[in-house]
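Q: Structure for this?
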Amino acid sequence: MRISRRATLSLRTIAIFYLTLLLLLPIGVVLIRTFEHGFGVAWNWMTTPAAVSALWLSLLIALIAVPLNTVFGILASMVLVRSKTRGRAVLDALIDLPFVVSPVIVGLALILVYGKDGWFGNWLIEHGITLIYNPAGMVVATVFVSLPFVVREVAPVLMEVGDEQEQAASTLGASSWQAFRRITLPSIRWGVAYGVVLTTARALGEIGAVAVVSSNVAGSTLTLPLLVQQRDADLGAGSITGAYAAATELAVISLVVLLAMTLLGPRRHEAR
Amino acid sequence: MLYMSIIVLIPLAAVAVKAFSQSPSEFWHSITNKTSVTALVVTIGSSLVVAAIGAVMGTVVAWVLVRDEFPGKRFISSLIDLPFALPTIVAGLTLIALYGPDSPFGLHLVYTRGAVLLALLFVTLPFVVRAVQPVLVELDREVEEAAASLGASNAVTFRRIVLPALRPAILSGTALAFARAVGEFGSLILIAGKVQIASIVIFADIESDAPGAAASLSVVLLVISLLVLFGLRRWGARVAH
C-alpha cells in the first residue's frame, strides 16, 4: 500500500502518543515520586530490614523456580517435538494452562491441595513439611505461574533445527546424552536464554498467586511486590514513598530484563 | 508429566472438586449472589472493552513499527515488552501516581472503572502487537502493489488484502489478551477500590476463610479460560491445515 505522508505521520503520532501515555509516562512518575523527598529518604526506605529481606526472598524464590522450570522446559519441549507418544498432544494442550488461569486461582488451588486439611496437606505437615504460608509454598506458586515460558520459546527452535544432526551423531556412536549435550543444547541455547529471561521476569514480579499462599509477615514471607502492596495500604506518614521506593527497585530489575529481551530477542529463533 | 500434575493439574482439579462438593444450591448461590454477578459482569465487560481497544491499537502500533521508519523506532519497539517485564503491582502503583489523590493532571480515576480499564490495557498491550508484528513483516507487499495498480484505494487494499492476512494473528492476540484480562489481579489490587473484580472477590473470599465461595467463582473463571484456550487451539489447527 502506498500511504500518503500525512497518513503515515498521523499513524506514527497516534502510536507514539498511545505508547507514551500508557508506558513511558507512568514509569517516569514513579521515579519522580520515589525521589521527591530526596535520595536519602528513598535509600532509607530501600534499606529497611523488611525491604532488604523482601529483596532477598524475591531473588531466592526466582533462584529456585527458574532453574526448575528451565530443566522442565527443555525436557518438555524435547517430548513435545521429538517424541510421538500419545501423551504428547495432552501435554501440548495443558502446558499453556498457567498462562490463562488467574493467579489468585493458582493460590487457592495450592491451598486446597497442600494447605492444612488439604488433599496432601496433613500428610506433608506430619512429615514436617509446611508449604502454605511458608516461603516453600511461595516457590511452588511461582513455579506454577512461570511454567510455560521456556517450553514455548524452546519448542519452536527445536522444531526448526530438526533431528538430522542428532541422528548423525548417534550413527557415529554418540550416546543420546552426548548427542543432547554436544548437538541439541548448543543449537537451542538462544531460545533457552530468552525463555529464562521471561521466566525470571514473571518469577520476580508475581503477586497474585504468591499473595494467597504467603502469611504476609514482613521480614519472613514478604516478597518485593508484596512489600509494595503493604506499604501502599499502610496509612503511616510517608509510607507511600516507601511503596514507590520498592517499586523503583522492581522497575530497575525489569529494565535489566527488558534490555536482555531486546538483545536476545532477534537471536532467539536462531539455531546456533 | 508428573511435575505438571503435582504443580498444575492436581491443584486445579482440587478447585473444581471443592466447588462441586458443596450442595448444588450452595454452589448456585455462590455464583449468583449480588457480589459475584456484579464482579463477573464488570470483569468480563472490562475485558471485552480492553480486548477490543487492544485489537485496534495493537494493530496500529504493529503497523507503525513494521512499515514506518523514524528515529527512535528501535527504542519504541523494545518498549512494547515492558508490561511483560514490569511487575504488575508496579503497574498498579504507577496509576496511583498518575491518577490518584495527588494526580499531576487533577484526574482522579483511581478506584473507578476507568483506572481498571487503563491497568488492563497496560498489562495486555504486548499480546496483539507481538502477534501481528511478525505476520506483517512476512506479508508480501507485491500483492498490495498489484491491488493498487489495478485501481484499488488504500481502504479497499487494507480491507481486502492486508486485513484478511492479519486476521488470525489479531484474533489470537486478542483472545490471549482477553484471557489475561479476565484473570488479572496484581495491577488491579491497588486501584480497584470498590469496583468488584472477580479475582479480587476470590482473594477476599480466601482471606475471609470461605474457600467454597472462592472455589465456585474460580470454576466460572476457569471455564472461561479453558474455552478461550481450547477455542484458540482448535481454530489454530483448522487455519494451519
